[in-house]
Design brief:
Largest sheet: none
Number of helices: 9
Distance between the termini: 59 Å
Helix content: over 70%
Shape: globular
C-alpha cells in the first residue's frame, strides 16, 4: 500500500495540471533581470568580447572545450560580431519579457547568452551560471501561457475562429 501511495504521489507531483501564472511571473522578472544584464554588458563589448579584447577568441578556443556551442565561432572574428550577437540577445530578451514567440525567444536568449559566457568565461561569477541554468529550465516550461503577447494572440485567434464558425452555422 505504501509503494502504491508513493507512486500516486509522484504521478500527481509530475503530471497533475498546474497553474501557469507563477511561471509567467518568473519569466517576466527573469526578463527584467536579463535586460539589466544586457545594459551592463553592452558598454564593455569591445573590451571583453572583441577581437582586440582582453581575452581573444583564439585564446578562448584553445583554453576552452571543443564540445560547446559558441556563436562566436560561426561569425567572423570582427569588431561588429559582439554587437550583432548583443543585438540578437536584446531582441530575444524583449521577446522573453513580453512573451512574444516565448519558446523561440527563450531558446535564442539561451544561445546568445551562452555564446557570451563561453567566449570569455573568466569574467563570470556564480550568478551568471545560475542565470544560464534557469534559462535552460525555462525552455521546458509553459511560461508563455499567461501574461504574454502569445496568449493575447491565441485569445484573439480563438475569438475570430469562434465568430467565423458561428457565422457559418447561421447560414
Amino acid at each position: 500500500m505504501k509503494i502504491a501511495n508513493a507512486i500516486r504521489l509522484a504521478r500527481d507531483f509530475f503530471f497533475e495540471p498546474q497553474q501557469v501564472q507563477s511561471v509567467a511571473v518568473i519569466r517576466i522578472v527573469f526578463g527584467v533581470l536579463l535586460l539589466l544584464n544586457w545594459f551592463m554588458v553592452i558598454n564593455y563589448l569591445g573590451i571583453f568580447y572583441g577581437p582586440d579584447g582582453i581575452f581573444s577568441l583564439k585564446s578562448s578556443l584553445v583554453l576552452g572545450s571543443n564540445y560547446r556551442l559558441n556563436l562566436f565561432q560561426i561569425f567572423p572574428d570582427d569588431p561588429r560580431t559582439p554587437f550583432l550577437l548583443a543585438t540578437l540577445n536584446l531582441v530575444a530578451v524583449l521577446g522573453l519579457l513580453f512573451g512574444f514567440f516565448t519558446r523561440i525567444s527563450v531558446v535564442f536568449t539561451f544561445l546568445t547568452l551562452i555564446a557570451f559566457q563561453f567566449r570569455n568565461g573568466y569574467i563570470l561569477n556564480s550568478s551568471d551560471i545560475v542565470i544560464r541554468n534557469m534559462l535552460f529550465f525555462l525552455i521546458f516550461t509553459p511560461c508563455g501561457e499567461a501574461y504574454s503577447v502569445d496568449r493575447l494572440i491565441r485569445l484573439w485567434l480563438d475569438r475570430k475562429s469562434t465568430r467565423l464558425n458561428s457565422s457559418h452555422t447561421d447560414i
